[in-house]
Amino acid sequence: xxxxxxxxxxxxxxxxxxxxxxxxxxxxxxxxxxxxxxxxxxxxxxxxxxxxxxxxxxxxxxxxxxxxxxxxxxxxxxxxxxxxxxxxxxxxxxxxxxxxxxxxxxxxxxxxxxxxxxxxxxxxxxxxxxxxxxxxxxxxxxxxxxxxxxxxxxxxxxxxxxxxxxxxxxxxxxxxxxxxxxxxxxxxxxxxxxxxxxxxxxxxxxxxxxxxxxxxxxxxxxxxxxxxxxxx
Length: 232
Hints:
By secondary structure, this protein is α/β, with parallel strands linked by helices. It has eight helices and seven strands.
């Protein structure tokens, strides 16, 4: 199981002293963005993936500004699969920020994964199942291969239906990535970054991720120990 999440990366700009408009930041990698927990900020967005239950950091991406999680779903999944971190049949757990019916359908049909995006209150499983349509090229293969693909789809569909209706049971597991984020941003100084390009922010973020990985390998692999480390 792979758990993914995003967090804001604030660049160290005093926007109280000087007012910045969106136009002022048009050609910059850092931009105005909004976070439910932080409010408005100027910076970038960090996407992070860990393996459960080991909490081993697997990958990270940095996006300019603060694009909506839902809008970068495809880019994240494509990149994780390109790196062979996320493979067919794997389960990907994401919070409600990534919620969209098309992400369930694309995850199952196009990517062949179990897309456990936490649903919103009006979610209807039937709506997902009713929109699962196999493309014609799905059957453009040897009969034995088509049979394998159908069996694979049935397998991930069964797992998806089982877990998506019990998604609240996964909340404690998903919350662990938030504790890892707190360690990266608090203990390893990514709360406010004095870097202003995508390349430089990615470089400093990579250091935080490496240090988090070392911390997990040294025994900080549960909620209690991660929270204590974040408070140091």
